[in-house]
Design goal:
Length: 283
């Protein structure tokens, strides 16, 4: 087996069981809440963010991993003769990828990949790389092959409320008020050529009906689905809703595996609770 370390920014939202199963290491982005700085998923969770918003009406800011942090993180592996493949959150959303590239140039034997995505959109690429490692491919070839898959990842989420987007300055008070009054739940889509987020279809009605319609819409949009796996990723939502979405997927398309994960601080801080998305790939 080749000496390859597989790694990603914490924003890939893989849970502990999947990190262990695929031998994935993660490095946390910084979360700044009030006067304090935390490490995403290490000493702060999405529920901590919701509590701070509820009690003090403050939302966190996220800060990129800096060059020195990446060098300190990768160095022990490189010194032991490992090559490292590291996946970053979209470069349009964070300077982490740029900093990772500088660290990689300094050290050598590190292959940073701009996922042009976030959350388990990045994770889908990470798991593809894990399977290539298991096939015995070398790190440079894996990095090149995975980069070709970036535009085949489809990530989107439905928001239950625009309150967090408004509080974070990403949505006007008028739009928020209108959406709440009309019970509009927008679908936020990731542009897989740039990693930027855009508003897709606007749904209207109760969340359970909206998520069922959204799931069918997304899965019937493509006729070349990659059926290995699909993620259901949420920011904290009821088990009943998760089951409803799982059943809707099963009734629409047969995937080999439906993986459910909870989003970390980055998605949760922007979207708020009761956000859910399905994330998958096409061939």
């Amino acid at each position: 087996m080749r000496k390859i370390i597989l790694s990603a920014d914490s924003t890939c939202d893989l849970d502990q069981s999947l990190k262990e199963r695929y031998e994935v290491h993660t490095y946390p982005l910084h979360v700044i809440l009030g006067e304090k700085q935390y490490k995403d998923g290490v000493d702060i969770t999405a529920d901590d963010i919701y509590k701070a918003y509820e009690e003090h009406h403050i939302l966190p800011k996220t800060a990129a991993v800096n060059v020195k942090e990446y060098i300190d993180y990768f160095s022990p592996w490189v010194e032991q003769g490992y090559e490292v493949i590291h996946f970053n959150i979209a470069s349009s959303l964070s300077s982490s990828h740029q900093n990772c590239c500088i660290a990689a140039e300094t050290l050598g034997k590190v292959y940073p990949i701009d996922s042009q995505n976030l959350s388990t959109g990045t994770a889908l690429l990470v798991l593809e790389a894990a399977e290539m490692i298991n096939k015995g491919m070398d790190a440079e070839t894996i990095a090149e092959e995975v980069k070709k898959m970036v535009t085949k990842v489809h990530s989107s989420f439905v928001l239950d409320t625009l309150e967090f987007l408004h509080a974070g300055g990403r949505c006007s008070a008028l739009a928020t008020l209108g959406a709440n009054l009309l019970n509009i739940k927008p679908c936020i889509e990731v542009d897989n050529t740039s990693g930027k987020m855009k508003v897709g279809k606007k749904y209207r009605g109760p969340l359970n009906k909206v998520l069922k319609k959204y799931t069918v819409d997304k899965l019937t949009e493509y006729d070349n689905l990659k059926l290995d796996r699909i993620f259901i990723t949420h920011s904290g939502i009821s088990e009943d809703i998760i089951e409803l979405v799982r059943e809707t997927i099963e009734d629409t398309v047969h995937f080999n595996e439906i993986l459910v994960t909870r989003a970390g601080c980055t998605i949760s801080a922007h979207c708020g609770p009761n956000t859910l998305g399905i994330l998958f790939m096409t061939e």
